[in-house]
Amino acid sequence: MKKENTKPILQTEPWFDDMEAEAVSAYIKEGGWITEFKKTKEFEESIAQFVGSKYCLTAPNGTLTLVMALIACGVGPEDEVIVPDMTMVATANAVKLAGAEVVFADVERENLCLSLETILPKVTKKTRAIMLVTFNGRYPAHLGKIVQFCKEKKIWLIEDAAQSLGSYKGGKHLGTFGDIGSFSFSVPKIISTGQGGALVTNDASLYKKLKLIKDFGRESGGSDHYLSVGWNFKFTDLQAVVGLEQMKKLPWRINRKKEIYRLYQEKLKKCSGISLIETNLEDTVPWFVDILVSDKKRGALIEFLKKHDIGSRPGYPALHSEPAYRYKGSFPTTEKIAEELLWLPSSSKLTDEEIEKVTDTIIEFFKK
Ligand SMILES: Cc1ncc(COP(=O)(O)O)c(C=O)c1O
Q1: Residues 180 and 78 grouped into a single domain
Q2: Is ligand 1 within 6 A of the CB of residue 68?
Q3: Is 3 inside any structural domain?
Q4: Same-domain pairing of 113 and 26
Q5: If I label 102, which of 10, 189, 253, 320 is the partner at 20 to 30 A Cα–Cα?
Q6: 89-100: buried (b, 16+ CB within 10 Å) or exposed (e) per residue?
């Protein structure tokens, strides 16, 4: 077989160019100290403005942001936190690092998020918080009910919106429905600072607590008077300079991600063997293009794509069944999704021709 002379199509790739290179170079030439300072503040303000929250605060990554959110809410030993069984493991691990107990709940097939129906059986007197993951920019069908329930029961609602920058529900940005919202800027995300994360909130008292947690509990930078126990979870201005350039590209990327998803939808709509999750592109920016592959064919499809130089990645496992957790319970939807979920090439750099190559290859696989 003649090998096609094209470059591999990666499942994901970051996108940095001259804009970031020039901004970093200018910052260093101006004598920037690299560490967190004015550029970080500017980056935080740009995120707060973009998502429409009063406060924003950056941190080294989107795992520590979740830990910080839990600590700021006073969650710790003896407390239980409800976490979706279908999420990136950091959501659950953050609960562990905060010293609380992880209680897994199943997700809904329609959006891969928690619902009030899956949450309710898991609520006990010890439930202090719910980690609501807006999976791939989607949200629960009845998000308002979850928000209301948490308010009534005085349970903290922490939104893990790591995958949701640019995604909304009816004009309100995801991550701004609960008490605190968390974002990640790791390499595969819609914007990246290499590593990085941010928290958003409208609550002045939570914001104050988060600032102390982030900076040794100091009253102010450089002061050695400690109002609470805190650590060093600061960002760097170097990352902020990159982040500010990435933010300029965000509106374009949001559009392109939606176009990419539409193209995949169009090309794959008649392909038997796979299904797509219903996605409202008015609201959702599919960070990763996700498909469900039935009949245990996912492994073979991954191999077939690989032979054609196309990268893909299986979705997350059902966390309760992982050696790190071994948590007993019934999670039928997550277990099924864990077997079927596949992420296709999703970088905003993808060309239409590359998408066509991916979809043609998938169609060919199912014709075999
Ligand atoms: C839902 C979710 N939560 C948390 C994280 C952790 O973010 P980070 O990699 O920045 O620590 C990720 C990263 O992929 C994620 O997808």
Answers
A1: yes
A2: no
A3: no
A4: yes
A5: 189
A6: ebbbbbbeebeb
Cα-to-centroid distance, 196 and ligand 1 (Å): 10
Q: Indicate whether 24 and 152 sit together in one domain.
A: yes
Average pLDDT of 65-77?
98
Ligand 1 centre to CA of 368 (Å) is 37
Instruction: Decide which of 244, 277, 307 is a domain's last residue.
Output: 244
User: Domain boundary residue among 213, 244, 275?
Assistant: 244
Residue of 88, 134, 319, 343 best suited for mutating to test ligand 1, as the one with most atoms within 8 Å of CB: 88
90 lines ligand 1 (CB under 6 A): yes
Is 111 close to ligand 1, i.e. is its CB under 6 Å away? Answer: no
| Digit-coded pLDDT (tens) for 9-43 | 999 999 999 999 999 999 999 999 999 999 999 99
Residue 61, ligand 1, Cβ within 6 A: yes
For the entire predicted model, the pTM comes to 0.97
Query: Does any domain span residue 327?
Result: yes
H helices present in the chain, as ranges: 18-29, 38-51, 64-72, 90-97, 116-119, 143-153, 204-214, 237-268, 298-307, 332-340, 352-367
DSSP for 126-161 reads TEEEEEEE-GGG---TTHHHHHHHHHHHT-EEEEE-
Q: What is the pLDDT of residues 219-258, one digit of tens each?
A: 887 889 999 999 999 999 999 999 999 999 999 999 999 9
Q: What pLDDT digit, counting tens, does each position of 131-172 carry?
A: 999 999 999 999 999 999 999 999 999 999 999 999 999 999
Answer yes or no: is the C-beta of 11 below 6 A from any ligand 1 atom.
no
CB 69 less than 6 A from any atom of ligand 1: no
- Does 2 score more than 50 pLDDT? no
